[in-house]
Give the backbone structure.
Amino acid sequence: MSVLHEDIGSDAVNGNEANDSNDNDMNGGAPGGPTGDGGADSGKPIVASTPMVPETMHAWQVREQPGPITGEPLEWVEKPVPQPGPGEALIRVLACGVCRTDLHVSEGDLPVHRDHVTPGHEVVGEVVALGPDAGIDVFGNRFEAHIGERVGAAWLRHTCSECEFCHSGKENLCQHSLYNGWDANGGYAEYMTAPIDYLYSLESLLEDGGNGSDGTSGAPYSVQTVAPLMCAGIIGFRALKRTGLLDGISFDGLDLDKARERIAERLGHKPVLGLYGFGGSAHITAQVALALGMRVHVLTRGKDAQRLALKLGCAFADDAYEMPPEPLDAAIIFAPVGAIVLPALEALRPGGVLSLAGIHMSDVPALNYEKHLFHEKEIRSVESNTRQDGREFLAFAAAHHITIDAHPYPLDQGQQALKDLKAGAFTGAAVLMP
């Protein structure tokens, strides 16, 4: 890496440049826009910065053609540190979770949106520079970030703020949405830029400086354990909401006891949830469901994952194609395997809902109407998340501690982490540490 310099100005940086699955066809845009990395021609100088930001950084990027991770489709490069454009922040990456969506981008399961993109969208970082103009959302709320503030960047990077979806609280369905690590360079790097109004302040979760131990409710998280919350946690929370089990529950000042009572009262019994696949996202979602009074059954092939599920308090764990010990009120499929849809539907009680959490899934086999869908069973997909989902989930995580099974890898081992993810070499979530 090159010698550090004290100030970043408009000419100082040349920025040209899920056992789980977690989520517009927009190619990289002009420098300084929501898909850009700033640059010397981005129009306005940075309005604030910390000293000692390097001119270059190390990062992973997809080679000319995506392909199987065993063929090493990522390359480790040194490149200029990006400059934030209007309404953006430059973030020094402190940790980046490894999501199965990163694997889909690297292998080409998801179509290329940006050539040589840097994956990564479970980012914990420190704001080190700000571009001009704070962000204002569709409702007129102004978002601010401060130098030195610890923030999170998630999958959703940008929406148009003008369409019917954006105005109706469904910005995750915006047809002009953009994503970190797919449309714009993400967190498999030492630095990245992101729009300020799509960042989450993490100060309430990192009260001890980000390196403390993780223990009982209310204990602070480390940057390593917060990183998986930024997508695995948020998307899992969205998938749980899509089951309908949380209908009528407000997460503004949530009272857990009252929430448990309301959920059970609405169903007429203690809710039963099935989770198919048990990696980074599912092991977080299970803890949210357990805290909300649900009985959780885990169906997954990995013996270590089954043991982790039982250790976290789940009632049952067995192979993904086995039947749970009782009918399910709802189920979530995290594994990107379409064939699991059939046994999951069979396991639902009448009126049950199956939520599909992945952005990518292999083909679903033909369904038998009487066996799989009759009795008003439903299948619902999950597409990305809204910022409100993120705010609700992170507030829940701050108030009700979630145990994260995190496996750290040095940043320069990012490709190996993806290989290990595909091979099922670890439970929980891998996290890259620059």
Observations:
- The longest strand covers residues 88-97.
- The CA atoms of residues 94 and 125 lie 5 Å apart.
- Confidence is low (pLDDT under 50) at residues 1-32, 39-45, 209-218.
